[in-house]
Amino acid sequence: MELIEILKSIILGIIEGITEWLPISSTGHMILVDQFLQLNMSEAFKEMYFVVIQLGAIMAVVVLYWKSILPFDFKSKEIVKKDIFIMWVKIFIACVPAAIVGILWDDEINELFYNFKSVAIVLIVFGILFIVIENYNKGRNPKVDNINNLSFKMAIIIGVFQLIAAVFPGTSRSGATIVGALLLGISRGVAAEFTFFLAIPVMLGASLLKLIKFGFVFTSLEGTVLIVGIIISFIVSLFVIKFLMEYIKKHDFKVFGWYRIVLGCILLIYYYFL
């Protein structure tokens, strides 16, 4: 029985590592998979697990972008890297709306919107937005093609889009922030990178909140399942992040929009007919 639960966690870790960074909604996939591959754990543990497993994905960003996100260089005369420090100020500003809503109304949001119907509708809506925005931007030169040129105003607007993802599961945090960035005329590469960096404080905060609510008390099996999920999501995320950054050099996000629409339709069909 214990081995089966660990194998389930490996599969869920793979799904998390793939869907966290591709703008296709990790929540939508987790809800669908959980119908067929349910962890034999308490509901409280599963609610915590599906959030804290994201810590592996965070570490993948830290490892891959260490030089781009570390604001200090103790070997240099200027210990603080000004551009990176300012970038982090923008990131924390962008996190404020979602952080306030998450802390105050996390349970209410889960109760209202964490379900098949809501997730499916949001998947479809943002899938359509991806296609519409990419068609609109076709042939246009981006206004911002360097992350250091992203303004404070742009960071705040992207933070509002992240708030939409915090309220409506299925939006996809990366999907929402990328849609917001593309609407502002930010290049796909910069939009993706800012989304990666924005995930670090957001996921750390969300994970800490869930761990506090759960109580930091685990059985040996629960601890093993959680650690396995985190490790697998870390390994998979390393490859997925590299793939995405190479992919968007030559392609747009429309394929992810179509995928979201199809997945949303599958969820609706399952909800109403199965």
Automatic annotation (TrEMBL):
User: Which family does the record claim for this protein?
Assistant: Belongs to the UppP family.
GO MF entries: undecaprenyl-diphosphatase activity
The name this protein carries in UniProt is Undecaprenyl-diphosphatase
Q: What does this protein do?
A: Catalyzes the dephosphorylation of undecaprenyl diphosphate (UPP). Confers resistance to bacitracin.
Q: What is its EC number?
A: 3.6.1.27
Matching HAMAP family: Undec_diphosphatase
Its localization reads: Cell membrane
Q: Which reaction does it catalyse?
A: di-trans,octa-cis-undecaprenyl diphosphate + H2O = di-trans,octa-cis-undecaprenyl phosphate + phosphate + H(+)
Question: Mainly localized where?
Answer: membrane
Read off the Pfam families from this record.
BacA
The membrane spanning regions, by residue number, are: 48-66, 87-106, 112-133, 154-171, 191-212, 224-245, 257-273
Topological type in the membrane: Multi-pass membrane protein
Q: What else is known?
A: Bacitracin is thought to be involved in the inhibition of peptidoglycan synthesis by sequestering undecaprenyl diphosphate, thereby reducing the pool of lipid carrier available.
Alphabetized, the UniProt keywords read: Antibiotic resistance, Cell membrane, Cell shape, Cell wall biogenesis/degradation, Hydrolase, Membrane, Peptidoglycan synthesis, Transmembrane, Transmembrane helix
Q: Does the keyword Transcription regulation apply?
A: no
| InterPro entries reported for this sequence | UppP
